[in-house]
Specification:
With 214 residues, the chain is an alpha/beta fold. Helices cover 20% and strands 22% of the residues. It has a 5-stranded parallel beta sheet with strand order 6-5-7-8-9, with helices on both faces. Strands 1-2-3-4 form a 4-stranded antiparallel beta sheet, with no helix packed on it. The radius of gyration is 17 Å and the shape is globular.
Amino acid sequence: MYRLGFVDEPVPGHESYRDRLSIPYLTRTGVVALTFRCIEDHSCKEAGHSKYLKPPAVSSRLYNTTALFTDQPFIAIAEGELDALTLSISDIPAVGVPGATNWRRYYNRCFEDFTQVYVFCDGDTAGREFGKKVAHEIEYATLIHLPEGEDVNSLYCKEGKEALWSLTGLTNTSYVTPAKRTTFPKSTYPEPSSPWASSHSVVSVGAPQEQVWF
């Protein structure tokens, strides 16, 4: 369904992608972009290379945009392609932003028809800043703060899809009101150029028990 691949014998000029996971950006018209992820069990920074590589002239875009055609009234946004894929196979339709700094203001138009948008924020400073930025742009955004040091994929590997569902307050494939919301006052963050969304909320893990625990 997601047509992931492995680069074993790259074509000339693509040698830098050898032994990487290939992640196609699929739309209803076919593949529109590719990115390549290192899958070695090491620190890419210490190894002196990037975790993700993409061909020259390939611009940043949303991953898994076919999820926008879901019949559900809710959708999720994840930081990264694999986190979006993990949510989607857990029956939570999701799109991915390729990196915390790659959100674009015009993306918010993609979510105007949804009554609830869950933004899964990685458990680090970049993830929290990513959530704040998205919350400025999308109405009915609910920030899902993952435990420190965790992302969607790592939490799924430890706890299964039930942990992801519990964070949203969803039950099976039916939409319900999230278990706990904290509304951000308008003055909490600097005013963006676009209007402040009328409803924003946050769900935290590892915070006080009255929020969300699993």
